[in-house]
Amino acid sequence: MKKIGPILLGLILLLCIWQLVTVIGGHDAALFPPPLDVLTALYEIIKDGSIFEHIQISLFRFFSGYLLAVVVAVILGLFLGRWSKVWSILDPIVQVLRPVSPIAWSPFIVLWFGIGNMPAIVIIFIAAFFPVLLSTVSAVKKVDNVYLRVAANFEMSQFHLLKKIVFPAAFPMIANGLHMALGSAWIFLVAGEMVGAQSGLGFLIVDARNSLSLDLVMAAIIVIGLLGLLLDKAIRYFENWVTKIWGGQGA
């Protein structure tokens, strides 16, 4: 309850500021809907169940792209962190591609993958891949040499070295990359669904905007924000669990 209290207070404060802005600003309710109108619109899409369909497909796309990016990036990062010469060649390429917004690739993504789930999944993959890759490579490079010397004394193979020594020692730092990637991927989920999808929370925003239902747009934004908050809390709990299990072995 102590942890939920500050969250509720923050949300109440936000609602109060929102209501105050609508009253003082004198904005047309159609252009800047007040909280009550938005909550009414939110109630309607909860009542008819349509919001849950959009949430379900959005979460499917999100976890498909995010988890695939995590698996690929961690595996590559473990090996590239150990192969310094290979990483020195690939690092400039990664640094050139990393700052490019995943949305910049959307014309090619839609042409290559069509319309549906895949464009959003690919955009999420790109958004999550680079933070996890870079954090993994950095974590591997910072593993204490004592661990590596002990492994060398036991003549461990590279595979077992990565599995039993490097990965556990680097994982607390990798977890930070997972956290950053989660936030980035969630942001670009909505952008991806605005580009090449016919369902999901991002599509709901575009569809409501096209019909000038800005109360519904704001309701969808609230749902996206609340889900993002829950995902952030979930990854924080995961990080804390990792710290308790492997924290003492980190670099």
Distinctive features:
251 residues, mainly alpha
Question: What is the general shape?
Answer: elongated
- Helix fraction bin: over 70%
Q: How far apart lie the N and C ends? A: 34 Å
Low-confidence sequence ranges:
none
Mean pLDDT: 83
Strands, total number: 0
The biggest sheet amounts to: none
Radius of gyration: 22 Å
Number of distinct helices: 10
The structural class is mainly alpha
Give your account of this protein's structure:
Helix content is 82%, strand content 0%. It is an all-alpha fold. α9 (201-210) packs antiparallel against α10 (214-246). The model has no long low-confidence stretch (mean pLDDT 83).
Q: Care to give the gist of this entry?
A:
The protein is 82% helix and 0% strand. The longest helix is centred in the last third of the chain and has 39 residues.
Note the topology.
Elements: H1 4-25, H2 35-47, H3 50-82, H4 84-97, H5 106-113, H6 117-141, H7 145-153, H8 158-196, H9 201-210, H10 214-246
